[in-house]
Amino acid sequence: MPSLRLPRARGAARAAGPAPARRTKTPLGRITATLLVGTLAALGPILEGALGDGRGWTIGLLLLLAAPSLARAGGPRFHPLDPETYIPATYFLSVAYSPVLRLLMSREFSLSSHETAAMRVAYAGAVGCAIACTALSRRQETPDTQRMVPMHRPKATLDQDWATIIVGVLGLGLVATWIVTIGVGRFFSLNYASNHLEADGKGLLLGGWHFIGVAVVYLLLRAASLRKAGLAVPRVISLAGLCFFASFLLNTVMGRRGPLVWLVLSIALAVHAYGIKIRRVWLAVGMVSIVFYGFFVEGARAQQGKGIDAQISSASAYLDRIENPLEIGELQRVYANLVTIVNEQPPIISYPGESWVNAFLILVPKPLWSERPLGLAQQYALWTAPDLARRGAGFAMGAATEGYLNFGLAGTAIEIAVFSAFFFMLPLLVASARGSPLLVRATAVNLASFAYNQFRGELTALLKIAVSLGIALLAVLVLTSVVAHLRRGMAALGPTRKSSGRRQRDPRLGPSSALGR
User: Fold this and answer.
1) Does an H or E element contain 255, and which?
2) How far apart are CA 88 and CA 264, in angstroms?
3) At 513, phi and psi to the nearest 5?
4) Composition of the chain by helix, strand, coil, percent to 5
């Protein structure tokens, strides 16, 4: 008598399987973990009261930034590409690297009173960052490969592939248009400062870089999903991805190291979120390469526009002059601005929250509103160096500094928490979710890759990046529909031609073979 087999429920299937060798500890609930990390906020003032001279704030800050990695949903782990480690680390670089290095290198193991006041502000930001990263921590999921590679067209170049390539080409067109407005010959002879001045008010054109960035990461993930399914990658995807990536080298010619670094970081974050393991040794090699690249471009800027030989000689001389490679001038300048703001209290905002309001107003294109408000960095430049400000210069204003200017220590904690949660943590969680489409993953990691750049920047710049990436995402979705409509229209014409051919076929020739169809 045949037995009746009924499908088991998922829970029953798990129950029927072999019992685990040992029980693993259940990770802390998010609420409990967040409360525990929140209690660490009291540690900084206690340690500073006991140790003084900035030592307590520094030790407390380091403990807070390590806490999300220890309290992460998947269990304690310090992986540089995990959001619970990556986001606090980028905040540390933006505001605390220089004072910590100075503290360790000082004979008295102490900071000055001005620097101690700045570290108090940095500590408030660390509280916001730690709480946001811990509260939002989630386990990484295995991507749904079947969704990434449609089974009905596994080897085909998809409609969205073509749409993404078109958006990448549009991005190249926007950047090329900006270069044409300058003049191709003049563009390659500009120095670094003049190059920045030419970019003022042309954010719509420079947003093309974000279009290209989304295309690069999407095409990489598309190739990875095909290889994971054991399929060959269409040549058009490989060639387009390589060409778009190579276009970012133009930023090096312009004296800008950031865009290429953010693109490489976007790729690393995307691959990690997709579940492809990157050995830590390669991450270390990549970090050393990025630091060397940064130093090289910094040295070449002095002779930018004077020929490649002069720039290489300048970069080589700059590398020879470096006495301590741990001292990074860019980070020192950002921290120095924080120290100045905290101790001198410059009147560069009229009312609390002004720069946050202006951040949204500045999104209006300058050609449409020539008198739009100035960014915080430009207002600070007007106060500290009016001559440079008149030439369009601005000084990097960290997010911690902006929050402090608006609402004091509470403003710093709020701004860093908002940055960490909505612009960096949530995008990385979306990028690592099982069912996230490749396009959404690519857009999300492009936004999250700017964590360090935006912790040392202000809200208005981050909003511009988010808007540019949102436009790129929308453009791909619209073009995907257009490409799909065109493909269906062409497919509808195919059967008509075939049927007419069959009617004209001489019946004496017999039926056509299946191989010839």
Assistant:
1) none
2) 19
3) -75, 155
4) 70, 0, 30
